[in-house]
Structure formats: structure tokens, C-alpha cells
Amino acid sequence: MINSIKFYYEVVMEMPNRFYSIERPRKRETLPKVISLEEVKTIINNTNNIKHRCIVNLLYLAGLRRSELLNLKLEDIDSKRLVITVKLGKGNKDRLTILSPTVLASLRIYYKEWEPKNYLFESPKGEKYSTQSVLNIINRAAKKGEIYKNITPHILRHSFATHLLENGTDLRYIQVLLGHNSSRATEIYTQVATNQLKLIKSPIELLNLR
Q1: CATH match of 37-193 with 3.30.1390.10
Q2: Cα–Cα distance between 32 and 189 in angstroms, integer?
Q3: 146-189 confidence digits (pLDDT tens)
Q4: CA distance 113 to 164
Q5: Parallel, antiparallel, or unpaired for β 83-86 and 77-78?
Q6: Active-site residue (options: 51, 52, 157, 163)
Q7: Is 73 a catalytic residue?
Q8: Of 80, 104, 110, 176, which residue is 20 to 30 A from 26 by alpha carbon distance?
Q9: What is the pTM of this model?
């Protein structure tokens, strides 16, 4: 609202810039929601078919946004170099992210069975797969695996970044894989990585409670 008023006076009315002594609301900073490696495995193992399995695999293994996954085309999968080209991601930037041999093997089985023509994942009519379908796949698999949490594609992306960090991957590489412009956006994962927290001994252990 403040920016709208500024735009009206300064751009529409062509008045000089003014000082607005209005306190702007502070953006709430929330921690990313993350699930464990075991929960990711459970979701993958409870997908209904090879296509659904590949969708969940790629969201997690490559840290993809849902829109990035749905925009993938067949030529974006480089089986020789084991990388995925993400075209026109957030900020209209291209980037490379990782592809594992295990998931590549699953993708080959999927390709032979489903024969997509243009997009990597297509609807029965050959169109781009829908965003709601991706969410439904994850929700069904989580429910089938008795994970009673609201799991979204972005939670899989957060989990990818956090698990990489916990496994010792340099924050700069994680930033590149996620396509973040600033390292500040990636540093949030240091607050949810638990590998260092596990090394801290709670003082309650000193009480020798039984």
C-alpha cells in the first residue's frame, strides 16, 4: 500500500521523491520445513508407479521447484554427464543440477513404459503435467506410508538442501544447485541442519535421571 502511494505521487503525478515516515511491517522469518531421510525414502517407496516414483525422485534429488520439474523436457536430461538443465528457473535463469545413476535408471524404465514426446512428464493428452497432480502424488504416497504431515514439493526441496548440508556439502555448491541469487537465502538451512546440534549435550544429561 505504501509503495502504491509512492508510485502515484512520484510517477503518475511526477512529484519529487518524498520522505515517508511510516513504519513498514517486518516480514516474518520462518524456518523451512524439512523431513528426514527415512521419511523421503518412505514417500518414494509408496508411490503408485514408475512415473510417480520418478517425479518424487527428481523433486528431491535435484532440489527442483514444482514448476521447474514440470517444465523439464527430454533433452534437459544429460545421461552422459549426469546433470539436469533447469531452463528459465526463478529469475529467468538457467542452471545445472545433479542427476544420480539410480534415478537415471528409473527414468529409462519410465521412458520406455510411458513414451513421453516433449515434456519429461506429460498428461494423458500429451500436455504438460499439472501442478495439482504432483501434489496429489506426494500426498497419497505420504498417507500410504503413514506420514501424517502436510508434505509439499517445496518441502522436498528444503529437505534436499538440508540433507546436503548435513552431509558436509559446501554451502556455495548448495546455493548453485538451488539457483539462489544470494548466499543469504541458502544460509537459512544452517538453522535447520541437525548434524551439529546432535553434538551438543543437553545439561539434563548431567542429572543422571532414571
Answers
A1: no
A2: 7
A3: 999 999 999 999 999 999 999 989 999 999 999 988 888 888 88
A4: 32
A5: antiparallel
A6: 157
A7: no
A8: 176
A9: 0.80
